[in-house]
Amino acid sequence: MENLVDRFIRxxxxxxxxxxxxxxxxxxxxQLEFANMLADELLKLxxxxxxxxxxxxxxxxxxxxxxxxxxxxxxxxxxxxSPDLKINGIHPQVVELRYGKPVVLNDKNNMVLSPLEFPxxxxxxxxxxxxxxxxxxxxxxxxxxxxxxxxAMEYLIGHPEIKRGKVRIAFTPDEEIGRGADxxxxxxFSADFAYTIDGGGIGEIQYENFNAAKAKITIQGLNVHPGxxxxxxxxxxxxxxxxxxxxxxxxxxxxxxxYEGFYHLAELTGSVESTSMNYILRDHDKxxxxxxxxxxxxxxxxxxxxxxxRTVKLIMVDQYYNMKEKIEPVxxxxxxxxxxxxxxxxxxxxxxxxxGTDGARLSYMGLPCPNLFTGAHxxxxxxxxxxxxxxxxxxxxxxxxxxxxxxxxxxx
Length: 412
Description:
Layout: H1 4-12, H2 29-45, E1 48-52, E2 58-62, E3 73-78, E4 93-96, E5 103-106, E6 111-113, E7 128-131, H3 140-158, E8 167-172, H4 186-189, E9 193-197, E10 204-206, E11 211-220, H5 236-245, E12 262-270, E13 274-283, H6 286-307, E14 312-320, H7 324-327, H8 332-343, E15 349-350, H9 358-364, E16 371-372, E17 385-387, H10 388-411
Parallel strand pairs: 3-8, 3-9, 9-16, 10-15
Antiparallel strand pairs: 1-2, 2-8, 4-7, 5-6, 7-17, 10-16, 11-13, 11-14, 12-13
Helix pairs in contact: 1-3, 3-10, 8-10
């Protein structure tokens, strides 16, 4: 494990934010450069079939060390980090979490990571954390997953006494903007099942995620002089406010948890003449998901009747669906991960993904793919942190999955 922290910090310092406005794959040069860097490292470690394709997808093989017929297991993480914050540089810090004391992230800006604000820190007192400097997110989503997978492969290479079948790994671009599985070649990956290493706190295992859609709404107003505007002006911003007020007020991210879905107004820009709104719609239950979409359509239709046809334009696209439907028929792969966690001293916590992963779409593409923990908390924020001990347990879990997969197959 001695390389794990240094490896993660080295990766985390590389800004691989995606660009949603780009039409290329990957959407940023930094992701491609990072993929090529990782490919060089994997070749030096001794992995086979290591290559980065034209779209920035890196795949590699850890060969089997037995001739027995063992199912091929895969591990997947993504190269990009959240684009939510504007980043000039990423400067991880390694700190010790002392009892009763907050972690000072940035003394100049008086930014602290406090158990009073983030009670989850109380679970890690006395442990070593990797934190931000308060000026950016940490990028543990998903640089931690990348570092943990590579460290696990390094460990398995160094411990040939652990019997294993063939292991496939892949690192994908642009997951954070919903494109991570767009050009993933499931046939070329050639695994029987896989796990994304892209979750949160220690012990998380996830095989349910949101059904997801995105909605772009444009509102065309009519701007005239306010002194003579009566019965003539159509203020597109006010229509936008009216539209949002017609959605359920408590079905928003800040009012929901667990299996509760939401409407999230992610972006709003406008003037009297024209306003644009971007929503994401989420729900674990397919029927409730469909009703959410239907309600938004009815609201738009109502406003067009009220203000004139073509005043409000809606473009809504489904993004991904709940992987539960695809995982349940092969639930043994969830049981395998749970057994692996218990074997290395981790208490499994089955929780729903309040979001999506590459694994959700890959499951519908024919590669069953639950999601496992990285150990990170407060993802996408300046207060992001990851305990080193949790990262080590993630590596141990990956190694144990590979081992148990072989053991169970050999017994059969």
